[in-house]
Amino acid sequence: MSKKANIKLDSSFLNELVLSTGEKTGKKAVEKAIVYYIQEARQRDMVNFLKKPRFKKDYNIIKLRQNER
Amino acid sequence: MKDKHLYLFDSSIWIAIERGDQAVIKKAQPILESNKVCLCDLIIVELLRGARTENDYQGVKLRLDSFPCYTASWSSVARLSFELIKAGYLPPLTDIYIALCAFENKKTLVTQDKHFKNIHAIKKFKLDYW
Questions:
Q1: Which residues in chain A are contacts of B47 at CB distance < 8 A?
Q2: Total domains in the fold of chain A
Q3: Which end of chain A is more exposed for a tag (fewer CB within 10 A), N or C?
Q4: pLDDT tens for residues B47-74?
Q5: Is B1 in contact with A59 (Cβ distance < 8 A)?
Q6: In whole angstroms, what is the distance from residue B109 CA to residue B122 CA?
Q7: Residue A2 counted as domain residue
């Protein structure tokens, strides 16, 4: 799924972004930067995300590893 | 996007965070906030199979997929398993794989699983036991 977006960017930032990402076009560099930013934000939010129970109550990985020997 | 030393959080650490272990959360939070955490493929498998519901599975997967993810070579797992058995240890293959993931990719393994200490006795890798 993709969404079209026309945005004005500071050309010096865009040129630097292209150089730093190693991409050939501004479009690809912006896409890469957005993915990078969102992934890092998701990493930082993990403790908050895990405040809600996500794993089975009795899920004991250390015991399970022993049983799978 | 410069290189930084990454900490490989074992499944036991993620589960401790989810269970609200404050001592673990206090240590994990600053490392997570500085984006210095990584995973290995087997840890992702272990965590996903423990998800409570389909929604939790999708949510956990989306977030885990945002971390750098490493692998180890199975031929190294075979070799180290052989050496461990010779030394009188029989740790689970998952532990050996995860330990080798830390060793081969030069990451610090952070865990609550004491069995990694047996592997560490034979194969030196960076290990932090919480």
A1: 55
A2: 1
A3: N
A4: 999 999 999 999 999 999 999 999 999 9
A5: no
A6: 15
A7: no
- Alpha-carbon distance of B105 to B124, in angstroms, equals 13
Size of interface A-B (CB pairs under 8 A): 80
| Minimum CA–CA partner of B11 in chain A | A61
Kindly list the domain boundaries of chain B, sorted by start residue: 7-121
Distance from CA of B127 to the nearest CA of A (A): 16
ipTM for this prediction: 0.88
Q: Calculate ∠ Cα B80-B85-B70, nearest 5°.
A: 25
Class of domain B7-121: alpha beta
Q: Which helix (H) or strand (E) holds B9?
A: strand B7-9
Mean pLDDT of A45-69: 92
Position of tokens 């993990």?
Answer: A46
Do the Cβ atoms of B52 and A53 come within 8 Å?
yes
Q: b or e along B34-55 (b: 16 or more beta carbons within 10 Å of the residue's beta carbon)?
A: ebbbbbbebbbebbeebbeeee
A34 falls within a domain: yes
Angle, CA B74 vertex, CA B40 and CA B70 arms, to 5° = 20
The model's pTM is: 0.91
**Residue B128: predicted pLDDT:** 95
The answer to whether the CB atoms of A53 and B18 lie below 8 A apart is: yes
Contact A54, B49 (CB under 8 A): no
